[in-house]
Amino acid sequence: MSQEKITDEKVSESGPVIEIRSLAKSFGSNEVLKNINLDLNKEENLVVLGKSGTGKSVTIKCIVGLLTQDKGTVKVFGEEVAVLSEDDLKALRVRIGFLFQSGALYDSMTVRENLEFPLRRVLMLKDKAEIDTRVTEILEGAGLPEAIDKTPSELSGGMRKRIGLARTMILKPEIMLYDEPTTGLDPITSKEISELIQSMKKNYHVSSIIITHDIACAKIVADRVLVMAKGEIVAEGSYDELEHSKDEFVNSFFK
Predict the structure, then answer these.
(1) Which residue, among 212, 111, 213, has the nearest Cα to 159 in the 3D structure?
(2) Beta pairing partners, 209
(3) For 132-188, what is each residue's pLDDT tens digit?
């Protein structure tokens, strides 16, 4: 299937924060990524749609250096990820937030302790007043200030997802990578998480890639949408443009 490129959006003057060219990745004889080319522009929400097994998650794992590609280049902030030293890779990852499907909260910690953990462990903050300010601010941004002394087991699935996002955003990353952020949530909670993603973009000026099967989420958050199939990008455009695509496969996501 040939790539259907509907729009040719201008890259911001400072250039894309992520540039991927000719990305290919195989696992044995399984060719997961064939020829991925994409840019993520500053303060943009880029949604990636595709069926399971099309390489969406593998792509974002290459972005943070969890996987190394077989061919092609992945540049983040102008730096080629695959050739970074371990120290430089760690420094890069501090600038990138990664929200997994589970939210990955520590069950033995309260919400406050979950939020304090990356501040102490990653940023090495020691000033209690600064830590308290950051925790309060991010909880208010997530709409859950009352949850501060609760444990994850006392929270609903949607609340845990919000706290997971808050814990990622408390480090003030410049890029966010979301892997199925609304999976397993009811439609109302899914809408709340989607709106929170938009709020985080507005309040923290973050650039994001959102991998999702949730077309309602895509409609709320997307500045631009890519469609992947069999390890390739087959369509690109705004939500409205792709929703009215004449390509049967692309249009099938919007029904």
Answers:
(1) 111
(2) 46, 177
(3) 999 999 999 999 999 999 999 999 888 998 999 999 999 999 999 999 999 888 999
Question: How far apart, in whole angstroms, are the C-alpha atoms of residue 109 and residue 98?
Answer: 20
Q: What is the reported pTM? A: 0.88
Kind of pairing between the strands at 45-49 and 207-211: parallel
Q: How many CA within 13 A on the CB side of residue 138?
A: 26
Q: Which of 9, 10, 38, 11 is nearest to 22 (CA)?
A: 38
Amino acid letter at 216?
Answer: A
Q: Tell me the one-letter amino acid at 79.
A: E
Start-end of CATH 3.40.50.300 domains in the chain: 1-10+26-95+174-249
Cα–Cα distances (Å) from 162 to 132, 180, 185, 186, in that order, read 18, 13, 12, 14
Q: Does domain 1-10+26-95+174-249 have CATH number 3.40.50.300?
A: yes
- Our CA angle for 207, 38, 201, nearest 5°, is 10
- Cβ distance 159 to 186 under 8 Å? no
